[in-house]
Write a structure and sequence with these properties.
The chain is mostly helical and about 50 residues long. It has one domain. The chain has 3 helices and no strands. It is flat, with a radius of gyration of 12 Å.
Length: about 50
């Protein structure tokens, strides 16, 4: 879901069962050592480079 930029972090959090965006963000950061928004930006940048 984070790879698709059509949904906000709060929409994604709700879709996967979190009642708050902050809880989702904390859990994501604990597991992946990066914020969900930073992950989205990193993937977008990598995809842009690959498609250039």
């Amino acid at each position: 879901m984070l790879l698709q930029k059509d949904k906000s972090i709060s929409e994604i959090a709700a879709a996967v069962g979190y009642k708050s965006q902050s809880k989702f963000t904390s859990a994501f950061r604990d597991i992946f050592q990066i914020l969900p928004t930073a992950y989205q930006e990193q993937v977008s940048y990598t995809n842009a480079l690959a498609n250039a």
